[in-house]
Design brief:
This protein is an alpha/beta fold. Helix content is about 45%, strand content about 15%. The protein has five domains: about 55 residues, no CATH class; about 90 residues, Glutaredoxin (3-Layer(aba) Sandwich), CATH 3.40.30; about 210 residues, 3-Layer(aba) Sandwich (Rossmann fold), CATH 3.40.50; about 70 residues, Roll (Ubiquitin-like (UB roll)), CATH 3.10.20; about 120 residues, de novo design (two linked rop proteins), CATH 1.20.1440.230. Strands 6-13-12-16-14-15 form a six-stranded mixed beta sheet. It has a five-stranded mixed beta sheet with strand order 2-3-1-4-5. The radius of gyration is 25 Å and the shape is globular. The N and C termini lie far apart (about 55 Å).
């Protein structure tokens, strides 16, 4: 067996569930995951080489062929395209000598586009391996590529002072946090994690679950499920082993709040997980961290180790009899892993394919054991609520939407960043805080959410009964082509579908083609009917939430901005459909005729 592969297997005790980590180590060692390493890796895990390749081929950041000594991934979000993406794209090709989707002749640079990397407040941005660069311009690109050619590593370029990777200062040297508005719940320095955990571990789990339920706190991952009820269901589920998973796969374009919480409140995140473990009877926790946040890993690992040293994690936490520890599981680039069941599959070392429900994760989750999966923001909110009390928390927000919400605001505004607002805050108020002027539309909750009109919806409120925002707020002024934005979002869903079900795999492609037809001026009014009808089919028959929400950019803009479609519709005159391309048809005929004539000559 290859000694390097053997060493990697030993590092993870040949644990099948750690395949994702092993694949990262293989790619770090060789630059890509070749067919030659698959038999040894499979042998050590009792898998076939195709089983290993099946997992590796699912994720964007795993390469099966040489991808360059420096792999550059340029974020291609709508926000990036509003901030100079095209110029940066051209500069990268010019400076590296590579074309996007390939490597240069020397094998030094590989250029790739990627979806949102959690930096919508500082686009254009890119990853070079596991290091990120923000606020890119053609001049900055020339400087970065020049230094790479001169032999500097990406880390040396972004961190010239050599700050250790496990320090907060290292993260801050790379990425701006842009916390614009703190509120009563998040980013509070006075939380004493030691005292909080000591107090909670002395209380009966049922008491803590009841307090969480009484606070009416709902999960911040998008579904808004009751946090207390989830813990109760997991506690009552049958199983000798139970798990707590923190979903830090913040893949919804335009969202970056979890990135900032992990940077400035990691102990509150971990404390929330410890408390959840105590409540449901779990001894093991997993933080599923998206690959785009690899630069946070060493810092988070150091925070976990410090908590172990302080007896806040590990065996007999604070001498209260609880055994609970946390490990970090890295993702590898797959939006669908934001779905809790797909995330669990990935944690098990598999493709991130959503499971059919029921059973739900609280019944059969990680390794078929009861598992409570919650979002980063949820764990911090739980820790703060239990520290200050459920009545205090319930006093914030509205009657049916208690507490506060973190908004990741980006786009056409002067102060993009993180804003903590109480539930019940109006959209107009949030826009004013962020310096958004002349706003035409706002995309609430990313592409999977709702596009609203500022003129019609500005006084709507963020709450679960109105604008149920998952944290992303993208702002578009009157200069923006909203139909192009819709097309970009649909391309995102086409790229990110796991492909397992036909409605999502094929339906989103058909919807994208229909948008292209309309944008090209070849659509008719019946095509708008098709958009609505096909969208409903995709929503109703898809396997998971991706297909259930992917048509929303189309449906919400058809409702709020019908003119962006109607002005593109071509009036139908004569017997031919507007979509019929006579020139292309004639060209095809001429080509076929020429080929037949050539055959006759021969």
């Amino acid at each position: 067996m290859n000694k390097k592969i053997e060493s990697i297997l030993q590092r993870y005790s040949s644990d099948r569930t750690r395949l994702m980590d092993m694949l990262w180590d293989v790619q770090d060692e060789y630059g890509y995951i070749s067919d030659e390493v698959l038999p040894d890796l499979g042998e050590g895990l009792k898998l076939s080489p195709l089983d290993v390749r099946e997992t590796a081929s699912f994720y964007h950041f795993f390469h099966s062929r040489p991808a360059g000594r420096h792999r550059l991934y340029l974020s291609n979000t709508v926000i990036a395209k509003m901030k100079g993406f095209n110029a940066v794209y051209a500069a990268l090709e010019a400076e590296t000598g590579a074309r996007f989707g390939s490597i240069d002749d020397s094998g030094m640079f590989g250029l790739f586009e990627t979806n949102c990397i959690g930096l919508s407040d500082q686009e254009p941005a890119m990853m070079v391996g596991k290091v990120v660069f923000n606020h890119l311009t053609p001049a900055k690109v020339r400087d970065i590529i020049g230094k790479l050619k001169a032999g500097q590593s990406p880390e040396e370029i972004v961190n010239p002072e050599g700050i250790p990777r496990d320090q907060l200062a290292y993260v801050e040297a790379m990425v701006e946090s842009n916390i614009r508005r703190k509120g009563p719940v998040f980013f509070q320095a006075e939380t004493d994690i030691n005292a909080l955990l000591d107090s909670c571990l002395k209380r009966h789990p049922e008491e803590l679950i009841l307090a969480t339920t009484r606070s009416r706190m709902r999960g911040r991952g998008g579904a808004g499920f009751s946090a207390g009820l989830k813990w109760r269901l997991c506690r009552e589920a049958e199983g000798d082993v139970k798990y707590i998973i923190c979903n830090a796969d913040e893949g919804e374009p335009g969202t970056f709040k979890d990135r900032v919480l992990l940077t400035h409140s990691p102990r509150e995140v971990f404390a929330g997980m410890v408390i959840a473990g105590h409540c449901v009877g779990s001894v093991k926790g997993i933080v599923y961290l998206r690959a785009e946040y690899f630069y946070l890993k060493d810092y988070l690992e150091s925070q976990l180790q410090q908590m172990r040293d302080d007896n806040l994690l590990g065996n007999n936490v604070l001498d209260q009899g609880l055994n609970f520890d946390i490990r970090i599981q890295m993702g590898a680039g797959a939006y669908i892993c934001g779905d809790e069941s797909a995330l669990i599959e990935s944690c098990e070392g598999k493709r991130g394919t959503p499971r059919l429900k029921p059973p739900f994760p609280v019944q059969q989750g990680f390794l078929d054991k009861p598992t409570a999966v919650s979002n980063v923001e949820t764990f911090v909110a739980v820790a703060r609520m239990l520290d200050k009390g459920s009545r205090w928390y319930e006093s914030l927000g509205t009657t049916h939407s208690t507490g506060t919400r973190l908004l990741s605001i980006s786009g056409d505004c002067t102060a993009p960043g993180i804003y903590e607002v109480e539930w019940g805050t109006t959209l107009n108020h949030a826009l004013r805080m962020a310096g958004a002027e002349d706003s035409k539309a706002a995309q609430i909750s990313g592409p999977s959410g709702e596009c609203v009109s500022i003129r019609q919806d500005g006084e709507r409120r963020f709450c679960y009964s109105d604008l149920s925002c998952n944290g992303s707020l993208m702002v578009f002024d009157h200069s923006r082509d909203l139909l192009a934005v819709v097309r970009d979002f649909m391309q995102f869903f086409v790229d990110e579908s796991c492909g397992i079900c036909t409605p999502c795999r094929a339906g989103n492609v058909d919807l994208l083609h229909k948008i292209d037809l309309i944008m090209a001026g070849k659509g008719q009014f019946s095509d708008l009917d098709d958009l609505v009808n096909w969208s409903r089919i995709v929503q109703r028959t898809s396997r998971c939430g991706l297909g259930g929400t992917s048509p929303k950019p189309i449906l919400s803009t058809l409702k709020k901005f019908p003119e962006i479609y109607q002005q593109k519709i071509r009036k139908h005159h004569g017997p031919l459909l507007p979509s019929f391309d006579a020139a292309a048809a004639v060209a095809g005929y001429q080509q076929a005729r020429d080929e037949l004539l050539q055959e006759d000559v021969e």
